[in-house]
Amino acid sequence: MFGSRLPPVLLFLSFLLHAHVLLSRASVPQVGSKAKSGKTGYLGTVIVALQQTQLDDVCALRIFAKLDVVFERLARELKLNVAPAIDAAKSAHEDAQEMEGGQVQGEEEIFSIPYDDQGKPCKALRILDLREGAEFLVTAGPYKGSRGVVGDKNREGHYRMRVQVLIKEPSFYAQVPVLLGKWWPRNAAQASGSTAGDYFPIASVLEANN
Predict the structure, then answer these.
(1) What is the pLDDT of residues 85-138, one digit of tens each?
(2) Which of 107, 85, 114 shows the shortest CA–CA distance to 203?
(3) Are residues 163 and 110 part of one domain?
(4) Angle at 196 between CA 194 and CA 200, to 5 degrees
(5) Do residues 144 and 166 touch, judged by C-beta distance below 8 A?
(6) Is residue 202 part of a domain?
(7) Parallel, antiparallel, or unpaired for β 61-63 and 45-48?
(8) Side-chain-side CA neighbours of residue 130 (13 Å)
(9) 150-199 per-position pLDDT tens digit
(10) Do 153 and 92 belong to one domain?
């Protein structure tokens, strides 16, 4: 299969140590020009991916599989003790619970952040309500000025949201799905007026929740 008398796992490990390893299609063009020239000083290029690439015919080793599967089997062959993958959503929840100063109120997804109702940094703390169903105002980006509603979290712990965007006057709107990265409220809750960033992308519409 590998064209060598070495055990497959050792040959593959040798390529990992001495060859370019393409972990995603995004890196193919940069490494590809060197692989085709034959002047890289390496044994060759290893491509691990499910889809075909433009360099399949010139790489030294081609594996059609997911990276998780390939490295899991490699670790098993090498008898390596690899820690299990971290549950991203659970990790995000635990990170929030460990924040200092009581700025995050348990499972309620309510944060105190140093940004005003326009998303600009300020000295006073303001409530950011990220509970499901809470309304917010977009303060930056292409949907600035639009209102939206917080949804649930995805598997990675990021917040699913829907923004109501005006498509055509006077009242034709579309619900646009967006994500708020879990690091946004976490970092904002740990900041102060002097250390806050330039803006926060949303502000809770508190009046709607009273």
Answers:
(1) 555 445 545 554 444 433 444 446 899 999 999 999 998 899 999 999 999 999
(2) 114
(3) yes
(4) 150
(5) no
(6) yes
(7) parallel
(8) 29
(9) 999 999 889 999 999 988 888 888 999 999 999 999 889 888 766 677 89
(10) yes
pTM over 0.90: no
- Place 39 in a pLDDT band, splitting at 50, 70 and 90: low
CA-nearest of 68, 97, 124, 116 to 186 is 97
Say yes or no: 121 and 179 in one domain: yes
Together in a domain, 27 and 114: no
Report DSSP state, residue 41: S
Q: Which of 31-35, 41-45, 70-74 tops mean pLDDT? A: 70-74
What is the pLDDT of the chain when averaged over all its residues?
74
Number of separate domains in the chain:
2
Per DSSP bridges, beta strands 45-48 and 20-22 are parallel
In a domain, 121, yes or no: yes
Residue 57 in any domain: the answer is yes
Rounded-to-integer distance, Cα 157 and Cα 181, Å: 8
Same domain flag for 96 and 159: yes
* 122 shares its domain with 35: no
Q: Within this chain, do residues 100 and 201 fall inside the same structural domain, yes or no?
A: yes
In sequence order, the 6+-apart residues with CB closer than 8 A to the CB of 29 are none
Q: How many CB atoms lie within 10 A of CB 71?
A: 15
Q: Containing domain of residue 19, as a range?
A: 8-77
Query: By the 8 A CB rule, do 109 and 116 touch?
Result: no
